[in-house]
Amino acid sequence: MNVILKAALWMTGAIASFSFMAVAGRSLAAEYDTFEIMLYRSLVGVIIVVVVTIYGNRWRELRFDQFGQHFLRNAFHFTGQNLWFYAVAVVPLAQVFALEFTSPLWVAVLAPLILGEQMTRIRALAAVLGFVGILIVARPDVGTLDIGLAAAATAAIFFALTIMLTKRLTRDNSITSILFFLTTIQLVFGLITAGYDGDIALPNAQSLPFLVLVGCAGLLAHFCLTNALSIAPATVVVPLDFARLPVIAIVAMILFDEPIEIWVFVGGVIIFSANYLNIWNETRKRP
User: What's the whole-model pTM score?
Assistant: First the structure.
């Protein structure tokens, strides 16, 4: 199977998982702050990863000699994810996802510096086209600052840094090792940030299913994303995530009565065109 197609299949799983996580995060926002959501998300993830690691006897795959890189990666991700959960609670989901999609622009800029990948004209053009599509979808008001939109835009930068470090870690670490440090380090971050005031909201019968969904979806999303990044360049994998935009727009309309505007689809056409251009270029270079 073609490498690009394999990466696309893994990203399909990531797209579905991120969408479920957004819906669950929106449902939890009234009862839990972002730090508490991240705490329970990481706790569920730790339980799953430890069980799978024990069952598969994969403890020897864990690499503690690169703990510094794991720590930095997860500090970036924890910051970005908290900003993302905040934005999900106060901004229409389609706009959150659209602003999050500025990450490929940062990936395209940072990949040559961090990963040693080549910045080609086609990749640069695809990134610019994607950015134009995002602006059409989001249409931010000039001269005003929306905290929710700012949080979503800033989260994209931290996600791009996370992707860069994830790609670097996949060179020497198994997916088990990456997910183990992802969940355990962020569980510690969650305990510190959620519990610093001595008040952590406990799960109840109504919120527990959503907390479990956030944890499972978040872990599965990273499992799929890490697999995709392990077999294809970051500047190819990340633009595939643009397919989340029409998916979440429809989901938000059905569940939260958020209107679908024509500009969402106009921008989506431009974004998909940029994706096709980038994927076609990467496929063309391979026999």
Answer: 0.81
